Fold these 3 entries.
Entry 1:
Amino acid sequence: MSSDDPSDSLAKLGDRVDFGEYEVDAYLAVLRHGKLSAAEIAKQTAIPQPRVYDTVRSLADKGFVELRDSRPLEVLAIDPEEAFAGVKTTLDDLLSELEQQYQTPSRDGEAVSLVTSHQTILRYLEDVISRSEYELVLSLTPGLLDRLEEQLAQKRAAGVTVELLLSPEADVADPDEFDYEHIATTTHVRRGVTTPVVAVADGKYSLYTTRTSLHPDADGYGVVFDRSGLGLLVLGFLNTAVWPSSNTLVEGAADPQYPRRYATVRRCVKDLRNAEGTLYATVEGRHLLSGEHRTVAGEITDFAVTASQETAAITLDTGEETLGIGGKAAAFEDIEAHKLAVARGSPPDIDATRSLTRTWIPGCFAVSDSRHRGVLR
């Protein structure tokens, strides 16, 4: 069975097929004649007589010939199909492992990676989508949508919220001709061909590239951010510079299932606008003034969102105090949220449920009190 690391298979293959000096000549001579003595091998080839014995013993150790302990020593050929069976198996394993290395982008812990190969950029794009667990924001071309349609449909079927922007608008298929709701929660369109290609998974793992960088002959680049704080930069750019200049193509019916986690307060508030009944939230984060790490939980008593949906905010009543909850790098509210989960009935335990772990909130600076409600993003 192949492993993810091809090092062992490469070494094993090298041991098997690394023919040393004179071994090729000796092997082919024995293969042609079927059986030769050491003296006959020396006569048939240019191998010096003193080197023949070492050469054929090396071939025997690798399984390519058989030695018959007789006087004189005889070297017998082995059917190549049998002799190379192990090599073929090793090669098959190696090809499988190398293919896995080729298809899976590096995850070496670097916060920022710069990639220049268009094939590698595409693999990272697919990897961002595959690693999304609950929220995915995308800016794609119609051609990329064709490539990624099946993968996106699988994510939607798994309950991932997908916000999709397509450009240029002139090339986008009409909703009567394409079922956008099976791949995205919301689909927007934008006019320009200068719109970048972007993918953000769960608000933290993201890719930014230009569409020209995806051409095979282009001298372009892609930037990969594998930290929640850096994902904030990409998500903030989308929300402020790209999304407001787009138009809604398809708005799917909102039917969020709780408990639920969110990558942005904006997305949370968008669901809250369509939710009925009382909802509760648990937030892990940092107090803005003291810097103290805090976990707060309580009833969501209010929320606010601008008409453009660029900004949003929530208010949390813990029973002891009313708190404004902001995202990463919040400036005006009480708590900078690092994790957020919403549920019915009572505040959820973020770490008790697998589906509610590792939720980062990168992207809102909320003002949420009785005098002023809004968000600076």
Entry 2:
Amino acid sequence: MSTILETAVAKYLRSGNPAQRTREEYSTTLRKWERWGGGVPLEKLGRKEIREFLDWVYEDAVAEQGSNPGRTANKVRSHLRAVMSWAWEHDIVEALPRFPKLKLQRDVAGRHYLTKAEINSLYFATHQMKRPRGWKHPFHIGRYWRCAMVVFFNYGVDTGTVWKTEPFHEPILWRHISWGKQSPDREMKEHSRWGWLFYRRTKTRKTFYRPMNRTVHAHIQNIMPANPDPDAPVFLGGGTRPNNRFRTLCSLAETGAKANIETGEVRPWVLKDFRKTCATFYDEHIPESSVEILGHSAGGVTYRHYAHRAPLAFKAIMTIPQPSAFAALARGFDGQCPCCRRRFNDAVG
């Protein structure tokens, strides 16, 4: 029995319980599908049909004098890919079709990722962070923030995965760190000489076993107490509102605010912007790898298929070029500028 797109979208949305705005966007895509005359069942939907549909969406947006037809077509493409990946997970289709390349689009939202130069400035500015009132932990707060930035950059995790600010958040604990070469997930065949990191996404609750590269390994060891409590959180210093401290850090680093290029609206950076930063640099390094690293729905696969996707994420994490500031600790220059060896004095007041 064939499966029509409308049925697949309805089941996909029920399985993920997305926001109302997301449901409305998928409904818009279905209306476009009907106008195009889409009667192709999912089992027979291939690259040719997808390309013809996306070309029609683009031309329709041009005919209606849309301000950004490329972005409209790419949004529809992302919806189709997410539904087809879900159908593949549930054995509705035997294989995922190859999707056409993204259309050229105008970035109407402005730049929503941090450059490596800005990350370097933020990293060194952590030495200027003042010690919070009542701070009794063994290391300066900036050391925890430097480690957190490395984890944000390499894995694109949620803020609640690093610092527990809500009751439902599950932060990374010391028992989630494995220093062995073999992954705790026995389904994975790869070995990491630097160890492994486990975490669960706040939004989807999906679990991930990620390899630590040299940079992540060095920074986590740098904040590890002599006798870590397995149930204690790895990262400290976030407070009840980590974004407020991040804004202060941006001020110390003199990082300019992000702005909408059309309206000129200026907004402060937030920690969630590290997810976009992570995706940007991973896709520059290995195209499409960000889908696997960030755990987007388009890349969601069951353990039966996971073994085929894990090598991509493993290779990307182990080889991604790091911001130059991150290399200071890995090369043994903790608290020093990696280029001129100038010492940084951590603020104490």
Entry 3:
Amino acid sequence: MTEAISGPRPGRRRVLQGAAVLAGAQLSAPFLLSARGEVPIKIGMTDELTGAASMLGTSEVQGATLAVEQINAKGGVLGRPLQLLTEDSANDTGTGVQKAIKLIDRDKVSVLLSDPNSGIAYAQTQVTNPKGVLNIIPGAHTDPMTGTACKWNVFRICGTTSMDAASITGTLVKRFGKRWFMITPDYAYGHTLQAAFIRDVKKLGGTVEAVVLPQTTLDFTATLIKAKLYKPTVLVNNMYGQPQVDCMKQFLQFGLEKSIALGGAIFELEDVVSTPAAAQTGWWNMEWWWNQPGVPHVEAFNAAIEKKYHVMPSARVWFGYVAVHSFRLAAEHSKGLDALKMARALEGMELPPDVALQPGKVFYRKEDHQLMANIFVGEVHPPKTNKFDVFTPRKLVRGATVAGSAADNGCHMTYPS
């Protein structure tokens, strides 16, 4: 199901970038007990706070931090304050796993919010499941975590790579044609996204030439020369973080925009605003968008993030915000912190409007624990009314319409006896 989107843009927005934003995200995490001295409920969170995708990790922490502060201001959860403990995975799987173990075994967190890197997040599920700890994944997309490798304790907020590919493939074919060249990062996210795109475009009669590169690639010269020789109608850029930005810049330097269109699954807001205006182009997905005129609670959320961080919220900010609120809802509905009972409480749960922050029903599918949210499909462009006004949504794709069934995705949920 798709819905057209339109609406006016708001006015001036301020921005604070770089180290100041990262420092604010790290220093603002609350560590204070309430006035009556209750022992806090600890939330563990690992994120890539240094490395190629540090902007994305920082944004997730920002959203989680705001949620914790707002919840504590209203009395906390089960009469106790929340305490957010953040750890930097540094985009390294071994580090991410060790940080998860520290948070669980030493810090005694009641929930782990996993890393945005799909490889790290997947490895962390291998830790949380045998330890019986609730595990919420804000922004790691690779399919198996709510597919063939689904687990009773694991819930995911962002869409799967298959959902993202299915949402945009038809638009890219319709607007630009069926001859594709694809650049993909060599890790779990890239592999499943590329496979989904190839499957979907071939169903529409298209052809794809794909190149897989290390996820830290910064020089795309040889790959872009190969793309030019292939003469595609569209280049699909599956990289993320700084490599995606560098690929876009070099695409322009070679003058390829004169003959090849750009597009892909996700072009994060953090990356778009870091890209030269000429490279702010193409058709992409946003997994949440800040400018939704008339949608309840969105304006208040935007204002709270802008006041605290001097940026407009991205999908990553929303992921972190939803993750903390999902834990709150699970604890409140189960009336405790037992992981199995919290998981049962989240199954099938619809997010309230002030957490969903988008139209329609947004819910965790019972069969695989995948959040069924909207995917915003539209056009990236240079800023209009403010620095963050770089995307115009053209339609909403309901997550449930592109998710496939849990059984078809290979999820067969099992629970502790």
